[in-house]
Request: fold
Amino acid sequence: MARYDNILEIEPNLDGTGLKIGIALSRFNQDVGEGLLAAATATLTRKGVKESDMVIVTVPGALELPLVLQKMARSGRFDALIALGAVIRGETYHFEIVANEMAAGITRVGLDTGVPIANGVLTTDTDHQATHRMSEKGRDAALCAIEMARLLAAL
Reply:
């Protein structure tokens, strides 16, 4: 933490040592999901989270993520959660429904439970965009989960 006159600033902390992280992965668009998961778990490990302190669960699709995240958050077992998956635009309105409801549900779970949830669910127009972004998004979600767990603990 750094001080500027009388203002206390809480610096970002990306040390994952000792954190318990839950990951909920949508199996729909499985190849992209596996890429997201590989990047997220590699980043968590690199930042000090032990594999034994990670729990990975899978659900059929993105709409099922909020419910399982809610159960995980209420369990008291996790310092932070990560949602992973891919919603890729098709030729119907279904994309908007899934993307909007999934995102709103994940946000609601975090606010209702106080457990930080990193939303690493890609919403893209094409498969190519999803595969191109999966590594970066998985990595970013892992870093977000660690930072938010540490920030909430500091507050």
About this structure: The longest helix spans residues 127-154. The two ends are 12 Å apart (CA to CA). Helices lie at 30-46, 65-74, 94-113, 127-154.
